[in-house]
Amino acid sequence: MVEFFQRTIDQLNNQYSMPEIADIPHIRSTRNAYKALGKSPSDYRNAAEAMLRRIVKSNGLYHINNVIDINNLMSVTTGYSIGSYDTEQLSELVELRRAPDGENYQGIGKEAVNIEHLPTLYDRLSAFGNPTSDSRRAMIQTGNRTIMTVIYSFDGKSDLQEVIDRYCELLIQYCCVEEINTIFVL
């Protein structure tokens, strides 16, 4: 996994310039969604854009664990922001909605993250994820887990099946995943 990860990062470092990143189609669609919801996409970059900017600046990406590394690789190669969540930490009802004024949560590796006006995942307890930064509450830890992965798409589903198929291949290859169920939620 480490070699595949680094090889992909090296390829992307040579593929894009900083100004080109915001024009990648799925990144541009997410930026437009943020604007429509009242959030500045330059102040609150979606994860795919933020990670690509790190790569182009030759800062690379951190290795977390295989699931998160696969999410990050899929995000930077497709332009989709992708979040994976430990379902044992979530209640049954999950919905995506615009976070209200003043909303925040404890982010992964961060204190309070301002999620006001971002498209945000909620369960019955609270907010736990969005295309910019996920909360600590539902983060993936080591060990056997049942995860829910969300590919945030703001421009339809034309290539999503191909992205999902590749994502599943990587999970099987690098994470020893035994069962995968997929659904599209529009």
From TrEMBL:
Q: What residues does the B3/B4 tRNA-binding domain cover?
A: 30-176
Q: Which InterPro entries match?
A: B3/B4_tRNA-bd (IPR005146), Phe-tRNA_synthase-like_B3/B4 (IPR020825)
MF terms in GO: phenylalanine-tRNA ligase activity; RNA binding
Superkingdom of origin organism:
Bacteria
Question: Under what name is this protein listed?
Answer: B3/B4 tRNA-binding domain-containing protein
Give the source species.
Desulfitobacterium dehalogenans (strain ATCC 51507 / DSM 9161 / JW/IU-DC1)
